[in-house]
Sequence to fold (617 residues):
Amino acid sequence: MDRAQFNRQLFFFLLAVLLPSVVLVVFGFVFLRQQTEIAENRAVEQRTALAQATGRELEDRLNDLAAQAAERLDSTSSAPRYPVGYGLLWMGRLDGQEFEPAWSFLPKKPPVSWGRLESAVEAAGRLEIRDRRFADAAVAYERLAGRTNDPRQRATAYQRAARTWLKGNRPERAAQNALQALKVPFEEQDEQGVPLAYYAVDNLLSMEVDSLREVALDRLRIDLDREDWFSPGLDYMVRVLLPAESDSILVAKGMERARQIEEVERLKSIVPGILRAGESGRWQGIGSWLVGSTLSADGPLSRHVFAFDLPALQGLLPEQVESVSFDGGERGLSLAPYLRDLRVELAPQESSLAMPRFFIVLGLGLLLGLTLFGGYLLWRDVRRETRLARLRAQFVSSVSHELRTPLTSIRMFADTLMAADDAPPEDRRRFLGIIANESERLTRMLNNVLNASRIEQGTMQYHMARGDVRDAVRAGVDAMQYAFDQEGVELRVEVPEEAIIAQHDHDAIEQAVLNLLTNALKYGGRKPVALTLSHNGTPECHIQVADQGPGIDPDEHERILERFYRTESAQNQRVAGAGLGLSLVSHIVEAHEGRIAIKSEPGEGSTFTIHLPTEAP
Ligand code: ADP
Fold:
């Protein structure tokens, strides 16, 4: 096939198969990308919607909780200051622009007054401070405690007795009095808002007796669980009293109260600003707090300020919300415009792509692969068909050419004979011999063509029979002898004395020998040709035809056995032939379960050897 034709076929192949598949794959990927984008956008929309719904729900819950708390604060003066859970903290009240922290509403107590006991208190004080008669002073304080029913006075008297017994080195007596003072309730406080009992706590802790220390800490445990704000003074006192190594839960509770007080102190100045900027009922993130307000019963300008502790909020959020923070950054989703600082992380959702990307890519790959494979098969077929068509056309012209030569000779010698009735008998015999030879050549050729067609149609039949291979070889040689003589080419034949018995088709083997000899004569360059039949002990015999012609390139050894194939050597161009002879030999040899071997190099002649299975010699 010439280059231009090959290129044209390649071009059509690319155009018809490769281009559409590439376009298909490109479209496939574009489609896939669009699908992915749509799915991603949908997911983002869903998440945003979910975040907004969550935001609305959260806002409703926060407002509800704050309203309940505000109602309780307004309805009773003794309402708990830590109202409803979820970390909700009443921070204080905003009146107009003035923010008052929660602890400023704690009831203020006057200093303890002694009334009629004033002089007795002073006398005990003198004994203690000036005279340093501690035992006497302590007894005086104890007596004082016995004379009054006022809890504040009793607490103070017992505590002073304890203090004085300590100074007088009588810890047991001191402890008795301190334990009495400890019984006074939390509400009995001095003018700094410190429960009077706490001074006794201080005394007990300073005695460094484990059992007393536990009793004192128990008192703090109970108070730290109260839902009341502590004043900053009380908070300070608690922290001073709590020794660092005591119960860590207790210390943490004390620290938490301190943190809340500090936060409120910090927010004090900014609360009026942010609450004025935001609408009522809207919540804003500040630090780790979500701060908002509700109207209070005290007047149109008065509002309760509440704060939710962020970690505690988690309990109010739906399951999909993984985390919530004020600094979720880019990754977090805003719950609502007014909650914009509060960002949530939502649990990732399943991809909603209709078909998983993997399968689409796999499908496209498979489609491309199949199309390319199909295209390749088609291309191969088309190429084979084109080659066959070309070879057939060549075949027709070769056959016509090959037929013409013997026909011309036959015609010429027949004409000569007819014209010259008186030709000498030896001329007549020679001419008739030529005519017979040429018609035999015609028969051989036609046999080849016929057999080739039978092979193609699958109707070629062999009639195997046990017999002497020498007979078939000799028949071939005899049929060709005349042609060799005519051409003046020597044919040397070597056939063994003993019979070579094999299952074979006599006519087919004769035909094979004929074809090999014909080629040797055609291509042998008029040099002697040798045919050797040998049987050297193996269960096969060899029919070898050797010429001294131009030889055949080893690259072509296999191809010359194909139908219609002819080498393109210059020599070949001048020799008539249809490219069928060797293909037939090959078929015959295969049918006999033998093989054909070619030994040939350009310029060194050619040797064709048929290996034929035989019965053991
Ligand atoms: P044909 O002889 O009709 O062309 P064959 O099938 O007999 O067809 O041979 C195929 C080709 O093999 C020939 O065209 C020729 O080029 C090459 N060939 C066959 N025999 C010989 C030979 N003895 N020496 C050189 N070339 C040969």
Notes: The chain is about 55% helix and 15% strand.
